[in-house]
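Propose amino acids for all 129 sites.
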């Protein structure tokens, strides 16, 4: 253990929260693409199925990364919004993207040329502190 005061490794704890398959992808789509709807996630996250998406969104809600709001319209509409806790992961997700776009550009881009997060996703809003 790094410190006698710790109950667990903080990095391991973060992975427990966001390390399940597709969780980072949902957060990415909320942060970079402003997606809020189940159908948007389902259409844009490769390889995810409705059951897995439903489970991940429920886990993320339980972990307080997202909030779910049900609108009593007809048909009923549900939207997910990222919470302050979820927003706090934004710089980590940006750095993950930036790393691959710079150092693994041959794997990421068809032309193999490195790019910045801003070039790909546009200027991202700064997190309000």
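Proposal:
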């Amino acid at each position: 253990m790094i410190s006698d005061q710790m109950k667990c490794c903080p990095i391991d704890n973060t992975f427990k929260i966001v390390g399940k398959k597709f969780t980072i992808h949902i957060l990415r789509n909320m942060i970079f693409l402003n997606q809020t709807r189940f159908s948007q996630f389902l259409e844009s996250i490769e390889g995810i199925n409705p059951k897995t998406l439903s489970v991940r969104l429920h886990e993320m809600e339980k972990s307080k990364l997202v909030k779910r709001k049900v609108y009593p319209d007809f048909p009923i509409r549900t939207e997910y919004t990222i919470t302050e806790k979820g927003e706090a992961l934004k710089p980590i997700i940006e750095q993950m993207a930036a790393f691959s776009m710079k150092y693994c550009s041959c794997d990421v881009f068809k032309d193999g040329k490195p790019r910045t997060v801003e070039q790909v996703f546009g200027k991202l809003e700064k997190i309000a502190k």
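The first helix runs from residue 10 to 18. The CA atoms of residues 40 and 80 lie 11 Å apart.
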